[in-house]
């Protein structure tokens, strides 16, 4: 039985060696397509970050956002909304309270005469 198996394997070897594992450029180009990134120059790392390139063409991290804004406060303002949406969109703070968006939540700064999570209680 093993000699028959050896003969089958050896007779099929020419088939495997004549089949190419590579494709021609036109064939490969129809399967593998890459779109150019914005400002995709080899020296892009020397310039200030680009928000379109870093966060809209692909998912970005906070370090890349920091490269774009080069300012901690602007970075934090963008990142809290980019990361999990703007929790202040629904205007949760009542009675003229000011909403500050945070990752995973929000905080209300209430006028002097109101207290509570959403400034809902009179003082």
Structural overview:
- The chain contains five helices and four strands.
- It has helices spanning 2-18, 25-31, 51-56, 62-69, 72-84, and strands at 98-102, 105-109, 114-115, 121-122.
- A hairpin with a 5-residue loop joins strand 3 and strand 4 (121-122).
- Helix 4 (62-69) crosses helix 5 (72-84).
- It has 123 residues and is of the alpha+beta class.
- The protein has a two-stranded antiparallel ribbon. The protein has a two-stranded antiparallel sheet with strand order 3-4.
Number of strands: 4
Mean pLDDT, all residues: 81
Secondary structure category: alpha+beta
**What's the CATH H-level superfamily name of the domain at 87-123?**
Laminin
**Overall form:** elongated
CATH topology of the domain at 87-123: Laminin
Order of strands, main sheet, comes to 1-2
Helix segment tally: 5
Most strands sheet:
2 strands, antiparallel
Distance between the termini: 93 Å
Transmembrane segments: 6-25
Pfam family, one: EGF
Disulfide bonds: 110-119
Organism: Electrophorus electricus
């Amino acid at each position: 039985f093993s000699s028959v198996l050896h003969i089958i394997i050896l007779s099929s070897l020419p088939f495997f060696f004549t089949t190419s594992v590579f494709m021609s450029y036109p064939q490969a180009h129809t399967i593998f397509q890459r779109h150019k990134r914005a400002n995709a120059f080899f020296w892009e790392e020397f310039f200030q970050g680009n928000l379109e390139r870093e966060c809209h063409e692909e998912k970005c991290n906070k370090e890349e956002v920091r490269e774009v804004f080069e300012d901690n406060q602007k970075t934090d303002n963008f990142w809290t909304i980019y990361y999990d949406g703007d929790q202040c969109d629904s205007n949760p703070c009542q009675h003229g309270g000011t909403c500050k968006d945070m990752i995973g939540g929000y905080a209300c700064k209430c006028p002097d005469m109101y207290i509570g999570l959403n400034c809902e209680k009179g003082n």
